[in-house]
Each structure stands twice: as C-alpha cells, then as structure tokens.
Write a structure and sequence with these properties.
With about 120 residues, the chain is an all-alpha fold. It contains 3 helices and no strands.
Length: about 120
C-alpha cells in the first residue's frame, strides 16, 4: 500500500520531469531564435562588406575625374583654392536664442512677463 510520503514523492518527481521538459523546450526555442538572429547578422555583415566594396569602386579618384570631365558644362566645377579652407575658429558662431517661452514651464528663466532677454 502506498503511503502518503510515496504519493508526495511521485508527484514531486512528475512535476520535476514536467518542469525539466518545459525548460528544455524553452531553451530549444531560444536556441532556434538565436540561430535565426545570427544568420541575419551574418547576412547584414555580408551586405555591409558588399556595399563597402561597391562604395570603394564608386569613390575611385580616376572615376570621379572622368565623371567631372563629362559633366563639366553642367557642374562647372573648379579646383579648390587654399583660401577656401578655414580653421574651425574662423567659422561664425551659431546665434544663441535667449528669449524665454511664455507660459508653462520657463525652463530656468525668471518669471517676468514684460522683460525679454536678448
């Protein structure tokens, strides 16, 4: 005759087997998804290398010179002059807009409706 402890142990073993099967099935599903993602990554890397090779072919100086010569009348390209190259400190600075917003959150501005900081 089965005792209560035997029945409890059988139930624990059955639930442990079911839990193990569930975990194994989830791991196999995740492994399949990882394999799909790895294949997509490999395909994207291959595409990137193909595009880089294509870009290097399109960006060859002699090819660009031939195209510039063919379309010289339309483009009217000229060689760069040394005075066209500037240092970063010679570039004009972007203007700073210090006008506070009206109403709502002032974002750090003092609340004064009649004063505009410029």
């Amino acid at each position: 005759m089965l005792k209560t402890l035997d029945i409890v142990l059988i139930a624990v073993m059955i639930s442990a087997a079911a839990w193990t099967y569930k975990i194994k099935h989830e791991a196999e599903t995740l492994e399949t998804e990882v394999a799909k993602v790895e294949r997509r990554i490999a395909l994207e890397r291959e595409t990137i290398s193909l595009l880089e090779a294509d870009w290097s072919l399109l960006d060859q100086p002699n090819r660009l010179q031939r195209i510039a010569n063919v379309f010289q009348d339309e483009l009217q390209l000229q060689p760069m002059r040394p005075d066209q190259i500037v240092r970063p400190d010679e570039l004009p600075r972007r203007p700073v807009n210090l006008v506070p917003e009206t109403g709502g959150n002032l974002g750090g501005y003092a609340d004064s409706s009649d004063t505009v900081v410029r």
